[in-house]
Design goal:
The protein is α+β, with helices and mostly antiparallel strands. Helices cover about 25% and strands about 25% of the residues.
Amino acid sequence: MEGNKINGKTVTEEDLLGLGYRKYYSDDLDVFYNKDICAHVGNCVRGDSNVFEVGRRPWIITGNAESAEQCIQVVNSCPSGALKWLYHGQDNLAKEETTMPTFTFEDQGDQIILINSDTKQQAGEIAFMEAESTLIIVHTGVNPEYRGNGLAEQLVAKVVEKARREDKKIFPICPFAQKEFKIKPEYADVLRQDV
């Protein structure tokens, strides 16, 4: 995952601020954080407790990083996309540009698999159980190298499409899916309300 992109496109400060991210800045690297989409996995704190320290104000001090590259690596490990970065010398940052592959989705009955079209390998999945005409989402996962590009969101959307097509409701147990249902009112028609 690249923490300076959303859905494969490089973002600007204005984009991030408009999406609800808060800016934490230093001379060469700005880190942005959106608490509303954070899954609280803790990769940031484990990755560099000098930069990321819960309970400290501000909790992100980008100037404490050993290097911009090291801080970028930690931000890129954020599975939810709640952390993003902008490097002031972006053109000078020695990093290999990668092209995002295309993906297909395969419905296997109790899960929908995300397939890398180039390698034909599984790149993610969303697993669910069915009970009483309800799809119970129990897990959403995307391989680390593809995280932060909207693929987990697309997996949830595929289950929503399936529920609509099959006239079923959805009960999300998976924390990521729960978050998606909280922030996307357009999914309310398939959300099971009585549980």
